[in-house]
Each structure stands twice: as structure tokens, then as C-alpha cells.
């Protein structure tokens, strides 16, 4: 009887297995430290997370997340002492869309004992598209 069920429903079984495989592939494909805007906002508002913007100075000046700390990615290692007090807090790293400079910067932070480092998937452009606050200076 069981064999008949499988034979009669083979198309449904194959479709279910394929869709499950696609979902699993997308989950595994995404870098494990990347987060979306909703999670970022929760970390910032409820977990006292630090927003660390690692873009260049002109990019930061053109618009950044309120209360973010700006340290360009290429200066991060020499300015680590500025971040010591945030070692046990979540850090949400912001980069320019299309140029993920947070990967290397995140590795630097993790190698120096920062346990909760996250990259905003899509960078500052995703933040803007979500109509979340931006300040210019």
C-alpha cells in the first residue's frame, strides 16, 4: 500500500523535496554573519548595538545611520582601541552597496575578541530603501 502512495504522488514528493532543497541552499549560501534591516534595528534599539560604518569619509558624509561610529575599513586595525568598550555588544557593520568591505573588517574584529559582529546585507543602500533614518553632515 505504501508503494502505491509513493507511485501515485511522485510528482508531489519530488516538488516538495526540490522546494526544500532550494530553501536549504539559500540558507546555506548566505554568509552567516549577514543580517537584514529588521534584525539590525532590533540589535540597535533593544540590545544597545553599535553601528560601525566602514565606508570612506565622503560616503559617510553623504548620509549615514544616526549615532553610527565611522572608521574606514582600511583604518580599522589601527583604531581598534576606540571599539574596546563595545566588545560584548552587538556591532552592525555598514558598507557601500555592492562593495562588501565588512567581510575583512568583520574578520579583524572577530580575531580581536569581538563576539557579536554582523554585516548589514546590502549595505547602506538597503537601509535607505527601507526608509530608515539617515543623517548628513
TrEMBL record:
Cited PROSITE patterns: RHODANESE_3 (PS50206)
PANTHER family the UniProt entry points to: FAD-DEPENDENT OXIDOREDUCTASE, PYRIDINE NUCLEOTIDE-DISULPHIDE OXIDOREDUCTASE
Q: Does the keyword Transferase apply?
A: yes
Query: Whose protein is this, by species?
Result: Nitrosovibrio tenuis
Biological classification of the source = Bacteria, Pseudomonadati, Pseudomonadota, Betaproteobacteria, Nitrosomonadales
Transmembrane helix among the record's keywords? Answer: yes
UniProt domain Rhodanese: residue ranges: 45-136
User: What's in the keyword line of the UniProt record?
Assistant: Membrane, Transferase, Transmembrane, Transmembrane helix
Molecular function as annotated in GO:
transferase activity
Pfam family, any one: Rhodanese
InterPro entries from the UniProt entry: GlpE_sulfurtransferase (IPR050229), Rhodanese-like_dom (IPR001763), Rhodanese-like_dom_sf (IPR036873)
Q: What is this protein called?
A: Rhodanese-related sulfurtransferase
Transmembrane stretches, start-end: 6-28
Amino acid at each position: 500500500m505504501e508503494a502505491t502512495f509513493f507511485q501515485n504522488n511522485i510528482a508531489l514528493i519530488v516538488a516538495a523535496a526540490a522546494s526544500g532543497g532550494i530553501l536549504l541552499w539559500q540558507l546555506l549560501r548566505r554568509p552567516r554573519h549577514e543580517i537584514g534591516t529588521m534584525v539590525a534595528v532590533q540589535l540597535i534599539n533593544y540590545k544597545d548595538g553599535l553601528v560601525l560604518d566602514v565606508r570612506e569619509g565622503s560616503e559617510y558624509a553623504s548620509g549615514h545611520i544616526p549615532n553610527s561610529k565611522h572608521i574606514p575599513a582600511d583604518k580599522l586595525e589601527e583604531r581598534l582601541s576606540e571599539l574596546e568598550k563595545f566588545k560584548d555588544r552587538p556591532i552592525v557593520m555598514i558598507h557601500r552597496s555592492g562593495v562588501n568591505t565588512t567581510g575583512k573588517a568583520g574578520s579583524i574584529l572577530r580575531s580581536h575578541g569581538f563576539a557579536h559582529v554582523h554585516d548589514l546585507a546590502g549595505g547602506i543602500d538597503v537601509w535607505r530603501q527601507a526608509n530608515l533614518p539617515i543623517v548628513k553632515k
